[in-house]
Amino acid sequence: MIDRDEQRGSAIRNTPHPTVPRSIGEKEFPIPRYDASVTPVWRRQGSFGYVEGGIGVYLLSATINNETNRLPSALQFGSHLGAGLSFEKASVGLALQHISNAGIKQPNGGINFYLLSVQMPL
User: How far apart (Å, rounded) are the C-alpha atoms in residues 77 and 59?
Assistant: First the structure.
């Protein structure tokens, strides 16, 4: 059985940016960045577990350009691939999520996220 689910999200991240620090007194703070995203996720449920995948869109409040991450455009695309085990009233899964701008603007470094999920009814 194939189910379609939709992941909608938003986040506030403190990503260091070497060229634009905020200072309060003598201490520097990273600039908070915000994002909003929508990712349709398709899941194939089996008797013991599931596999899932999806592609979505992210909108960032600011670009990221530091020593480890480069996302030079506010428009980003995300891909999601995961698998998990299903139990009687819960499931546990592991997923990989990759965000990049699909080559719209260079350098297109992208960021990978590893997600661990536990789902159970409340």
Answer: 9
State the distance between the two ends of the chain, measured CA to CA, in whole angstroms.
Answer: 24
* Domain extent for 34: 2-119
pTM listed for this prediction: 0.70
- The per-residue pLDDT for range 74-85, each reduced to its tens digit, is 899 999 999 999
Cα separation, 56 vs 100, whole angstroms: 11
Max Cα-Cα span within the chain? 59
Q: What pLDDT was estimated at residue 77?
A: 93
The CATH number covering residue 31 comes to 2.40.160.20
Q: Which residues of 18-29 are buried (b: 16+ CB within 10 A; e: fewer)?
A: eeeeeeeeeeee
Based on the structure, what is the number of domains in the chain?
1
Smallest Cα–Cα separation from 51: which of 86, 8, 78, 102?
Answer: 86
- Type of residue numbered 19: T
